[in-house]
Structure formats: structure tokens, C-alpha cells
Amino acid sequence: MYSSLTLSSIPEWEEFSLDASPNVEQLDNIKAHLDLILLALEALTGISSEEMLQVASQLNLEKIIADRISLWRLRQSNPLRKSSGGRKKLDVDEARSLVLIVCTLAHRHQELIRRAVALLEQMTQQDQEPHRSALLGDYLDNFSNTYQQRMDEENSPSTTQLSHLALKLLIDLLFYSDKNGHRRLWLALIDYSIDILPR
User: Fold this and answer.
1) C-beta of residue 95 within 8 angstroms of C-beta of residue 189
2) How far apart are CA 140 and CA 155, in angstroms?
3) Cα(62)–Cα(27) distance, integer angstroms
4) Rounded Cα gap, residues 175 and 127, in angstroms
5) In degrees, to the nearest 5, what angle opens at C-alpha 99 toward C-alphas 98 and 102?
6) Exposure of 4 by Cβ count < 10 A (0-12 exposed, 13-18 middle, 19+ buried)?
7) What is the pLDDT of residues 162-192, one digit of tens each?
8) 82 near 152, Cβ under 8 Å?
9) Where are the domains of the chain?
10) 60 HSE (CA, 13 A, CB side)
11) What interhelical angle do 92-108 and 181-191 show, nearest 10?
12) The pTM is what?
């Protein structure tokens, strides 16, 4: 059975402090990065929207993320996604909620994330392409295919850029799967640079 964060270990909103309210550009970056992290989790673990909603319920976040439609609209707020008429603005409480959901899911799948990162280190040391590993190859293919299906084709990244992004997010997930992962992710979102995709 997988491990999970207990209700008593859920951080208080005060741990997600802000020196100032994010501007529009910062919120866009936060929206994009959170959605990409969830995409990486989906590509590696096969999690579904139902599992995300179950976690939201366990974390008492139903008022913010009540159903599949509200979850879909939150994820559609990613400015990198194809326009579908469902886009909405993401507020700070919604961003905090998604951080908790991401980190709880990463913690549950920590063993798989650790195995994938260990394989990546091994392949790098052996100077081999990550695709040669079945686990990493499936992850990279899933990430690339899902990204291309969901994101706007304008300024679409190259295959190499997508692979670099997927591997970076995989390593990030390892840090976010730890006990204090929510703090790491929140700080990363606040400090995140303007450029979402690697060049």
C-alpha cells in the first residue's frame, strides 16, 4: 500500500505566504508550471482526474476543487494550452490547493519517482539515452504525446526541448514528493523565471 500525507500533516495556509500578490505574468507562470508538473505525474504514473479529486476531498479542498469540471477549468487556465473556451483566471488559493494535490500525489508515488530518477542517473553515467530504459522511454513518450495533444501548437518546442523539460520535471517531482515538498514547490513557483520552456 502506498504511503500518503496524513490530515494532521497538511500545512496551514500561512506556510504559503506571499510578500505581495502575484502580477498577471507571475500567475500565468504559476498556472503553466503547475499544469506541467501534473502532466509529468500523469505521464509517469497514469493518475486520473478521479484520483486528483479523491486527494482534493481528503485534503478538504472540495470548496475549491469540487468536481471534474472545476479541475478541468483550473488546468485550462494554463496559458500554454490550446484555447477551448473554458479558461479562467487562477487565484492564489487555487494555486495553493493544486500545490497540495501535486505534492500529495507525488508522495504517494514516491517509490516510482525514485526508481525513475535512479534509472536516469544510471543512464547518464553510462552515457546512454534515457529512451533506452523502458520506464523512462514510456514516460518521455507519454509526456511528449500528451503535451502535443493539449498545448498550443504556436511556438511548440522541439522534441529535444520536450525531453529536457520532461526529465527536469521528473527530477523536480522527486523533491516535491518529500515531506516538505509543498514548501519546495511553492517557493519554486514564486521564484520561477519568465521562460517556462528550456532553450
Assistant:
1) yes
2) 20
3) 22
4) 24
5) 80
6) middle
7) 999 999 999 999 999 998 888 888 888 877 6
8) yes
9) 22-191
10) 9
11) 130
12) 0.83
